[in-house]
């Protein structure tokens, strides 16, 4: 059933439109239930699509039935569908948390959230670079509006920076696309991969310039070192369910890096092969270090979690720079783990902050939280997982990262940076946890207890961390299969361009 | 024609980047608009510049590439919507923060003293 590939994009769009119709729009409960129900359906659809993809390999959907490479295509391979599954799993948790009352602090929370899901799913599934730009803009305009959801000075200030930076990024993206179209004559990713190997020598530098401009754009989205300054303030000021969903936004940048620099400029690209690695490797390592320093120096808990996002992005970028199968497999596994756990930490930070009165989530001694055992255990589980200690998924993720390099100076660099940053994250988190839960005075107020739906949302996200350990065998073989499929560019090209050599 | 076109794009980009680096939101918005003009012209040029090119096969000897025109149209629509959003956001930031500086506050007086106003 080939139309299935289109559904993860269509379903959120139709849901968003439906929520804005009067019978549903005027009732908060109907909006919530429709939004949650539709996201649950989306999760079911994406898991179904994943099982189909595992059976059939790479499949594609040609919009308007244009023969590739002429029309726009959507491509479902293990990597893209796995990311769609991750998004819908995460979105369900975030929407449940938002439905506990956060969604009423501004208008149109649920429609915007669904539009953003549409953009994210589209960005993962598309097989066309210009279409990737369009879906980036769809998810960005929804995220601009979601970022100022709830209002307030901090949000407005962060939103101005975020919007201006991303508009400048879009301009650079379009310059890059125009250069690549002008030289390669196509924007279909598979077709570009086929064309880039035979690009004439006089166009080589232009293609390289276009490819490296794309690197700037995706580095901005993924928040890699010189372009990461927007991230901590933006993520720390967004309302909690939005921050939780934003945890996947940086991973879209990493996914785009993976897609462009393994498929288009991968091993088969001749003189242009691996041109991004020389940049990504040192920048990734520096991002990890900077994130770890940020974790140690954060004065409030949400900034600390935002810096944890930076640490995970840095690790993923290093793996993309290595680019072998083991590294790509580790990218997939670590993306699943880090996205869900940091999202859960954003939600926990909000619950803790609400119960500490005026001190909110600042790391100072304040009044006792109302539910110390519950919140403390959730925090403990998430912190142990994100720091990479044994029982939970962070440990396996870090292990896969370390195993991805096994020789030479690369190993020395990556191992020392990852291990030292893990230690710094551990120190930062234990300091934060002991301040939040133990340096307390006074009596808790019982008015702000976390609602069942909020606790369910956090447990839902953290259950993934446990599940990734319990089903570590099947999951690693799945990510391994995804990495093998991603590296097998000629197979993907031959599936998508049935008649090789067709030129527009 | 190529020289004129290229220098137009270069000039627009330079103006756009210069204005984007200003401290107030209005020049930044204008700068982004100019940058998006430059981008649109640049995409248009990616289909090669030629005069009197036909889009439909079999009607002329000289053909134009129709795809960049479609891409430009998409980019114009998206850029226009984004600029509109940014204008509204800038107005809201002016109301919320009490200043139109992009950082939400004017640089501290200490720095202002070092560079006295003429």
Question: Could you give the topology of this structure?
Answer:
The complex is a heterodimer of chains A (504) and B (118).
Chain A: H1 7-19, H2 22-25, H3 28-56, E1 59-62, E2 73-76, H4 78-98, H5 109-125, H6 129-147, H7 153-184, H8 189-196, H9 204-222, H10 230-237, H11 240-246, H12 249-264, H13 277-297, H14 301-322, H15 325-355, E3 366-367, H16 372-387, H17 393-404, H18 408-437, E4 440-441, H19 452-470, H20 472-487, H21 489-496
Parallel strand pairs in A: 3-4
Antiparallel strand pairs in A: 1-2
Helix pairs in contact in A: 1-3, 1-5, 3-4, 4-5, 4-11, 4-15, 4-19, 5-6, 6-7, 7-9, 7-10, 8-21, 9-12, 10-14, 11-15, 12-14, 13-14, 13-18, 14-15, 14-18, 15-16, 15-17, 15-19, 15-20, 16-18, 16-19
Chain B: H1 2-20, H2 25-45, H3 66-97, H4 109-114
Helix pairs in contact in B: 1-2, 2-3
Which structural class fits the helix and strand makeup of chain B? Answer: mainly alpha
Sheet with the most strands of chain B? Answer: none
Q: Report strand order across the widest sheet of chain A.
A: 1-2
**Greatest interface (CB-CB under 8 A), with counts per chain:** A-B, 29 and 36 residues
User: What is the count of β-strands of chain A?
Assistant: 4
Radius of gyration of chain B, whole Å: 20 Å
Shape of chain A: globular
- Catalogue the unreliable spans of chain B: none
Shape of chain B: elongated
- Largest sheet descriptor of chain A: 2 strands, antiparallel
Individual helix count of chain A: 21
Radius of gyration of chain A: 22 Å
| Helix coverage percent of chain A | over 70%
Find the structural class of chain A using helix and strand composition. Answer: mainly alpha
- In DSSP terms, counting alpha (H) and pi (I) runs of 4 or more, how many helices of chain B? 4
What can you see in these coordinates?
The complex is a heterodimer of chains A (504) and B (118). By secondary structure, chain A is mainly alpha-helical. Helix content of chain A is 73%, strand content 2%. In chain A, α7 (153-184) packs antiparallel against α9. Chain A is globular and about 75 Å long. The N and C termini of chain B lie far apart (43 Å). With 118 residues, chain B is mainly alpha-helical. The model of chain B has no long low-confidence stretch (mean pLDDT 86). Chain B is elongated and about 65 Å long. The longest helix of chain B has 32 residues, at 66-97. The chains are: A mainly alpha (504), B mainly alpha (118). Chains A and B meet through α6 and α7 of A and α2 and α3 of B.
